[in-house]
Task: structure prediction
Amino acid sequence: MPERPIVRIRREPSLGRRIKGRKGRFPRKLSYREQAERQSATFSRIAADFARVEAGADVSLDPAAASPDRALVFEVIGRVEGFARAAREAGFEWLAEDFADSEGTGDDPDGEDRDETAVRSALLYLTLPSIAGMKRLLGWWTAYAAGRDPPDDLAKEWWKLFGYLADVRVWSARDRIDPSLAAYVARSLEKDPRALVPVEFDLWYLGSEDRRRRALDELRALLDASGAAVLDEASIPAIQYHGVLASIPAGIAYEAAAGTGPLAAASMVMTVRPQSLYSVELPAPIPMERELCSAPPTSDARPAIAVLLDGYPVQSHELLRNRIDIEEVDIAGADAPLETRFHGTAMASLILHGDLAAGEAPLERVLKVVPILAGAQDAHVESTPVDKLPLAMIHRAVEALAARSGGVMEAVLFNHSVCDVSAPFVRRPTPWAKLLDDLSHRHRILFVVSAGNVHAPIPLPAYGSHAEFLAADPDERGIAILRGVEAAKGRRGILSPAEAVNVLTVGALHADGAAAAPANQVDPYGFAVNNICSAVGLGFNRSIKPDLVLEGGRQIAAVVPHAAGLAIEGRQIAQLGQRTAAPDVAGGTIDFVRRSTGTSNAAALATRHGIRIAEALEAVFASSGERWQDQPTRAVMLKALLTHGCRWGEIGGVLNRAYPPADPNWQRRRETISRFLGFGRPDVDGVVEGDRNRITLLADDLIVSEELHEYRIPIPNALLNSREIRRISLTLSWCTPIHPANTAYRGVRLQLVNQEGKGQYWGGVDPFLQPHPNFGLKGTTIHRVFEGARRLGRLPEGGLFVGVQALSLNEAFKDQRVPYALAVTIEVAQTLRADIYTDVRSRVRSRVRQRERV
Result:
């Protein structure tokens, strides 16, 4: 066996290469005559509104009137670069930029490779802090409509905006009220029509603290007058977030959901939406099994690598005793009665032991736990507290850990197996996702996030009756269910904050260590595809989400009534799922176990694998006298290596034939498969356990926009004139800064290129069955696998060239140093009698020594 499975490599000296960003495609700009005809009435109305304000009139009762305390919306048909800066300099306070189609999914119907540099219809939101600023704008509009040139450089950006302008209006109730609020209010009042409804208010994030305080006071006054009560409030400057959680009376809730009443017209509020909440029903009482396990006599002395943000675990359980370190921030033990401690106990068990049915050795490293779920003795759910903003709890937990470690976080992995159960991702990143992205970049940490579980019924038009469904061939029935899930994908999207771009999002596979399903139940699949409830992608900007999939337990297919005919839903039963620690609700026993399923379980297993990889990296860095935890690239190394072994495998071939059956476009089929499998199922053993026929090389660095970092990968001499199968895997992960108020959102994009700036690397291999490479450009991970067996007359001179190039997507990040990690694995068939590990490793070491001498 190799002495160390992962070998670090260094980049080649820079040759001064630079790249330039691609320009977006812009629609036709309208002439000043066309725009004057289309928009003059609008600007005249706005001018009249401000004349009324100047004259001392109160326009607060007119929801359509423009005034200094209301957001003005400029809807444009093309991106106007630099407009945020020009708006501020003209005397406007910039609020945000957003998509015009707020209800879309972000999917491009033409399947084209579009990204942040391409044109989209956008909304540019502005407040008007002074009448003087508005007078300047109206003067510019008059000059533009008359066909005059811009009077100064500042006005040039406004002339561009006038040319692409589609509409100008005041931010109103139609924008402010979330489309899902009405259904949420109805659900909340089903049991008690007079109950208070928890609702979230996202306030405009104003530039000065004084103005934010005044806006909050105004909202509080409105809520008090409505009989509502403020439960929690948070202001997070890094993501330009100012949120309030309030409980409001039923009548006021119905009124707001309908877009009427004082809350719907509150000018200081950007969005009114359902409460962000993670809630899971406590499992039904069943006879539980027991697991004999000896707890270690003392806790491992090394600092924790991973943190579990979840429920309060049973710390005295034999599987967890002396293996976890609980740190209370928002939730204390008294907030979580023993009989409600299922979720956190199960997640801690999966991270430390894996599925107990697999018999894996437990991890020795202590797991730190910060509880964020609570329960009540008379309730049947375990949830984030109903009187707290989950986003604020996560923020407080991470910042508290950073503060207690002197500002430098020792832990790197944060298991986040919770989500907003009522908020599927729809086009724009949610504040919760923005928080995870910002914390990831600032603290050099990696969040492992569950994709979410969706329990909505899945129509199956292929079957006319329950009996026909039960009598079907199991393999054909499995394919029909897969097609039913694919057809319903628009209603089964990932749940917030799984769309965050810097995190590792994990979906659940229909696999576990349990025995066969009972004879009276339908096991939907005879293969390890996604379990029925696992949410599907894509993510922001049509990026690949989930990133990968892992075992999440098997669920049965239960037939349920449906208006469209036969439908099924995924259901957990006691006999299937992953075996984990569980509380003894009767008390007195500390070794109970039971089974569970879901994407939370899959995320916990990903965290377990991440700890194994982190410990391997500790050894690699220690061998050269360095400390891995001190590296600014530590989190992206973990993300790259967790993804590096991913493959679609046999199930990728099954889905490639099944999805969608009538679509000959292979790119669309690959995109559909990516919605379910992401980059695939990881082979972590192949990464952390070396072999003679395989070597993994790892590079990490910081890169600035328009730089190109060059690497040369030695190719084993044994491949010369060989027809043996060889495989090369390339994985690039980075952590981008974000712009929370910009549609581009990601600050920096990276790309893998060859010497010609293209995506082909070596003539001896061809692309594997995997996501289309363009999909990788839209997130923060690019993963490509090449395989081939063609005889080669010669090998690439100097080794295989791999370039990492960077491009800022916003001028604010053009000088930002972004951490990245590049993993490269060369693998050959076992039949090739050569030690490629030793061959490549010796040449890497020789090259490093030569560079050090220079």
